[in-house]
Amino acid sequence: MVLAFVCSLSMITYLDRVCFGVAAPQIAADLNLASVADLKWAFTAFAIAYAIFEVPTGWLGDRLGPRSMLTRIVLWWSACTALTGLVGLEYAGWTFGGLGALILLRFLFGAGEAGAYPNITRVIYNWFPPHQWEMAQGYVWMSGRLMGGITPFLWAILVTGTGNTSPLVSWREAFLIFGVIGVIWCLLFRMLFQNLPPSTASKDPLAHEQSHSHDNVPWKWLLTNRELILLCLAYSLLNYGWAFNITYLPAYLQQRFSGAASPAIIAIYAGAPLWIGALGCLSGGYCVSWMDRWLKNRRLSRKLLGMTAMLGCALCWAIASQADNLHLFCWSVASAAFCVDLTLGSAWATCQDIGRKHTAVAAALMNTIGTMGAALAVWLTGTLVQQAVSQRAVLENLPVSSLSESIRDEAAIQGFQYVFVTYLCVYLAAALCWLLMRPTRDI
Q: Domain 2-196+208-436, what fold?
C-alpha cells in the first residue's frame, strides 16, 4: 500500500508538471505571446521556487513526518494547477491576469511542490530495508516518468484532438480536472497512511529515528561531504539536459516536424523520453543488484552505473544534434532519457545512505542543486532561441513580430541546435563527477 501511495503521488506530480509544457503553445497563443520561448520565465519561476523551498520542506518532513508534509504539498500544488486554467481568462469584460500572473502562479506552484520527492524518500527509508531502496526508488520514478510520457497523448485526447477524435474539454478545464485528482489522492492518503510501520515501531531502532529527526541537522558535515557534493553536481548536470523533455520538446516537435507525422504520433513522441525513461527507472535497480552480485560492493556498483549511463547520454545527444528526421531524433532523445533514468534509483538511494535519519534533508539538498541546473537550462534555452530569432530578424531587416511563422520557426530550430551542444557537454561532465566519487569511503 505504501509503495502504491508513493508511486501514484509520483504519477500525479508528473501529470501536473508535464501538462504545462504540453499546453504551452495554447497558453502562449491565449496570452498573445510570439512563441513558447516567451514563457521561459514561467518555466524558470517554477524551478527557482522549487529549489528555494526544497531543503526547508525536506527538513520539516524529517521533523514532522512525511504524512503531514505530503498532504500539504499535494493540496498546494493541486490548487495552483487548477488556478492555472484561469490565467488570461476573459469574463464580463475582465481578464484574470496575464504573463506576470502566470509567472507568479508558477513560482507558487514550485514552492508548493518542493519537498515531494525528499519526503517520498523519507517514506521509503522508514518502510523499506536498505537492500530494497534502489528498487523502491526505481518504481517511484518509473511511475512518474510513465505518467509524464502518457500525458502528451492524454492531452491530445482531452484537449487538442488526435486527428480522428474531437477535443473533449478546453485546456482550462483540463487543468481543473488535474487539480481535483490531487485532492482525491490527499483524502485517501490522509486516511490510510502512517509515518512508521506499526509492526516494527517497537523493534527496529531505525524506526525510532523519526522521533529524533528534530535533533540538530549536521549541516556543516553534509555541506562539506565530498560524495554528497559530487552527487549534487552530477544531479544538477543530469537535470540540465533532462529539463528539455518536459518544457520545450512538445513545441519543438510541432515546429520542426509538424508535417512529418500525424498529431497523434507527434504526441506519442513528445512523451517518449518519459515512457522510455520509465523503463530506465525500473532497470536501474536491477542493474545495481546484478552488479553487486559480482562486485560485492553496492556503492561501487552505483558509481559504475552512473558513469556509464552519463557517457551514454552524451553519445545519444551527439546523434540527436545531427538527426535530420523525426524518428532518429526522437529515439535518440528518448535513449538519452533512458540513460538518465538508469541512475535515479542509485542517486536517491545514495542520499539515504548519506543522510540516514536526515534522509529528507540530504535528498532535498541534492534535488535543490539539481533543480537549479534545470532552472538554468530552461532559461538559457529560451534565451538562445530568442536570440536566434532576433538575429534572423536583423538579417531580414524586419522586426521579430513581422517575421513569417515559417521563418520564425526556422530560426528557433537553429537556436535549439546550439542548446543541444550544451547537453552533450554537461553529460560528459556528469560522467566525470561519478568517476570522482569514492564509493569505498565510510560515509
A: Growth Hormone; Chain: A; (1.20.1250)
Q: What is the DSSP code string of 341-403?
A: HHTHHHHHHHHHHHHGGGHHHHHHHHHHHHHHHHHHHHHHHHHHHHHHHHHHHHHHTS-GGGS
* Amino acid present at 148: G
- Judge residue 19's burial from the number of C-beta atoms within 10 Å of its C-beta, 0-12 exposed, 13-18 middle, 19 or more buried: buried
Q: Rounded CA gap, 91 and 286, in Å?
A: 54
The three cell numbers of residue 15 are 501529470
C-alpha cell belonging to residue 25: 503553445
Does 38 score more than 60 pLDDT? yes
pLDDT digits (tens, 9 = 90+) for 369-400: 988 888 888 889 888 888 888 888 888 888 87
What is the tens place of the pLDDT at every residue in 168-200?
A: 888 889 999 999 999 999 999 999 998 888 765
Given CA atoms 125, 131, 134, 136 in this order, what sign does their dihedral have? negative
Q: Please name the helix (run of DSSP H) or strand (run of DSSP E) that holds residue 339, with its range, or none.
A: helix 326-342
Q: What does the pLDDT read at residue 300? A: 86
CA–CA gap between residue 304 and residue 275 (Å, rounded)? 24
Q: What's the pLDDT tens digit per position in 208-253?
A: 444 444 457 788 888 888 888 999 999 999 999 888 988 888 888 8
CA dihedral 226→233→228→312, nearest 10 degrees, is -100
Q: Are 82 and 96 in contact (CB under 8 A)?
A: no
pTM comes to 0.74
Q: Which CA distances in Å does 276 have to 64, 289, 320?
A: 36, 21, 16
Label residue 12 by pLDDT band (50, 70, 90): very high
Cα atoms found within 13 Å of the Cα of residue 185, Cβ hemisphere only: 27
**Does the pLDDT of residue 120 top 70, yes or no?**
yes
Please enumerate in sequence order all residues whose Cβ is within 8 A of that of 281, keeping only pairs 6 or more positions apart, or say none. 138, 139, 140, 141, 142, 145, 341, 342, 344, 345
Q: Read off φ and ψ for residue 86, nearest 5 degrees.
A: -90, -20
> Residue 438 corresponds to which amino acid?
R
Domain boundary assignment for the chain: 2-196+208-436
CA 87 – CA 440 distance, rounded (Å): 52
Q: Are 338 and 276 in contact, with CB atoms under 8 Å apart? A: yes
Beta carbons of 335 and 276 less than 8 angstroms apart? yes
